[in-house]
From TrEMBL:
SMART domains: SANT. This is Uncharacterized protein. It comes from Tagetes erecta (African marigold). SUPFAM superfamilies: Homeodomain-like. It is found in: Nucleus. The keyword Endoplasmic reticulum does not apply. PANTHER family: MYB TRANSCRIPTION FACTOR-RELATED, MYB TRANSCRIPTION FACTOR-RELATED-RELATED. The keyword Lipid metabolism does not apply. GO terms for cellular component: nucleus.
Amino acid sequence: MSSNSNNGSMDMSGSEEDDQMNIMMEDLRRGPWTVEEDFTLINYIAHHGEGRWNSLARCAGLKRTGKSCRLRWLNYLRPDVRRGNITLEEQLLILELHSRWGNRWSKIAQHLPGRTDNEIKNYWRTRVQKHAKQLKCDVNSKQFKDTMRYLWMPRLVERIQAAATTTTTNTATAATGCSSSSTTSTTNSYPINQTNNNIDHNIVTSQLLLPQGNISTNFGNTQITPTYTPENSSTTAVSPGSELTDCYFPNQNQSFIQQNNPIHGEFTDTLISPSGYFNPWIDYQAMVEQNNQWSDGGNGGGDDFSSDIWNAEDIWFLKQQFNM
DNA sequence: AATTCGATCAACCGCTCCGAG
DNA sequence: ACTCGGAGCGGTTGATCGAAT
């Protein structure tokens, strides 16, 4: 695959010009950026500013395409780029915004200050899409979206609230009953900043989960940003064993079902789909079906993911809550 | 200890949009 | 109205690293 295959329409006639172009193409560097290149780019932008990336690349003496320079700057070198863990609040926001806008990563990224579209896209693909795949349903299917909106998101809110009320370090796990055994993090099990968390969790809950889904831009711009500190932006990424895996219906955590059931729950409104298409019975059937598949499937009793979520106890709770 | 496997993320690619000429 | 180049976006790839075997 040619690195410049999109130049097919370029009208370059004559072997001399072709040779010149070939030389230019050969000169272009690709792959990971070196420290020197980073320094050159930072230095140049500091003096001349952003924009006109192609000429910038040339003038700076970088043997890179303008595109490559732009990407490196926006996704990595930009001083306000925020690296490290994606917090629970950010995850919640991503889920909410994606449910509204779909794969409009840059638009979603605008509501997560310091986060890049690339980072959000990667998060979505590695975490969310992975689970859709494991659930054997399309990530764009109603079923999956409903699961996200009416199960995962309330669950995230619960965890955010739990984290907010738990001021001692590293106790979110105990508070929510979620296992952190699968986490690979060497620091806290949860990326949320527990000691310096000034997010208004009531705002998060009430604004994000209203059926109308009115999201305050303040949430994105103001509520999240101040929570960022170097401490919570450690090198560890989002724990793979968190958020979307072991906490849909965590074992021992009956309160989740109770809180979220359409009759008793505080998320009553959120569980009744605005469009009315969220049918607990249908989902229950799907869950049972999936559970059966996983239990006796070719994976030798189901994978970790499925067994975490839909064990017999969970099914029983669902049955109870939905009067089946 | 060596190998395999899966997760993550930086970087690239192709496409579309938009504004200038 | 049309062309062209720059910019941006979403999808995809591949290198790397840690966990599991």
